[in-house]
Amino acid sequence: MMRKKIVFSLLLSCTFSILGGGCSQKSKMEAQGSKEHSNLAIERETDNKMSDWNLTSSDAELYIGDLGVDQLYTSNQVRSLTTGSTKQALLPNGFPLIQAFPNPAIVPKQGSYVENVIDTAISYLGTPYVYGSNRLEPSSFDCSDFTRWVYLYALGMDLPWDAKNQAAYVDALSKRKYHDISKARRGDLLFFTSFRGNRAADYAGLTASQKPITHMGICLGNGKIIHSASKKTGGVRIDKIIEKNFHLQYRFILGGGILD
Fold first, then answer.
1. What average pLDDT does the chain have?
2. pLDDT of residue 14
3. Where is pLDDT greater, at 234 or 81?
4. Which CATH number fits the domain that encloses residue 219?
5. Beta-carbon-side half-sphere exposure of residue 127 (alpha carbons within 13 Å)
6. Which of 19, 57, 99, 148, by CA, is between 20 and 30 Å from 168?
7. Within a domain: 110
8. 190 secondary structure, DSSP code
9. What is the pTM for the complete model shown?
10. Residue 36 lies in a domain
11. H or E stretch including 18?
C-alpha cells in the first residue's frame, strides 16, 4: 500500500509539472537543458572506464550487476495472483505481468514519448551507483532502478524492479524485440549478461544458464547506451556499445521497445 501511495504521488507530481503554466519560459529552459545535456553526454562518453581492464577486472559490481536485487523487495510480498479460475501470467519474481502505458496526460516531446524517456535519462547523468538502491527516490541507482525510475518519472510507467524481471516484461509484451544489438532503437531497453572480461572469447560457448541477465540500460541511438553500471565507473553514464575491446557488445542478450 505504501508503494502505491508513493507511486501515485510521483505520477501526480509528474503530471502537474507537465501541465503547469509558463510554457514559453519552460520551452527556453528545455532548450538550454538539451544543450547542456548534449555537452555532458559528449564528455562522459569519451572516458574509457568501462573498457579499462585495470579498473573493470577488480570491479565487483560489474561482475554481479543487479543479480539478487529482486529478493530485497519481494520476500514479504504476495508472489502470485489469480482472478476466478483464470491464472494471471507471472514474472520470474512471482508478481503479476501487467502491461504499463504512458500517462495520457503527459505530452510527447517532439511528438514522441521516446524523447521524454531520453531527456529524463540524460538528466540523471552522474547519479551515484548503489546496489539495491532505494526504488522510491532517485538519489542513487543500480542499473534496473535507473531504467525503472526513468520510465516512471518520464511517462508514469511502473516497470518491474530488476533487470531479470524487466527483461521478462519486454520478452512477453514488446512488439519489437531482438537478440541482435544492431537492431536497437532510441528508447529501447537493452539487457546484458554478467561481466566476465573485455574479450569476445570470454563469453564464447556459454550455455543459457551461464548467461543470466544482470545488467540493463536504455538505447540512445547511434550505437550508444545510457546506464548505471558501478561506483567505479561513475554511476549513470553514456557509452558506445560497439567499441574495440568493449564487453557490452559480447554480453548482449535481449532488447526491445515498450512504446511501439
1. 83
2. 43
3. 234
4. 3.90.1720.10
5. 25
6. 57
7. yes
8. E
9. 0.81
10. no
11. helix 2-19
| Residue 143 within any structural domain of the chain | yes
Do residues 178 and 185 lie in contact, with contact meaning Cβ atoms separated by under 8 Å? no
Half-sphere exposure of 174 (CA within 13 A, CB side): 21
For 187: left if phi > 0, alpha if psi spans -120 to 50, otherwise beta; the answer is: left
Distances (CA, A) of 110 to 113, 114, 117: 8, 9, 12
pLDDT digits (tens, 9 = 90+) for 193-230: 999 999 999 999 999 999 999 999 999 998 999 999 99
One-letter identity of residue 31:
A
Lookup: cell for 141: 541507482
Number of domains in the chain: 1
Model confidence at 93, pLDDT cuts 50, 70, 90, reads confident
DSSP-H helix ranges across the chain: 2-19, 23-45, 53-56, 60-64, 69-74, 113-123, 143-155, 163-173, 248-251
- The count of C-alpha atoms lying within 13 angstroms of the C-alpha of 31, restricted to the half-sphere facing its C-beta, is 6
Q: Provide the grid cell at 36.
A: 547542456
- The cell for 105 is 496526460
Residue 247 CB: number of other CB atoms within 10 A?
24
Higher pLDDT: 11 or 153? It is: 153
Domain containing 221 equals: 49-257
The sign of the torsion formed by the CA atoms of 199, 202, 204, 208 equals: negative
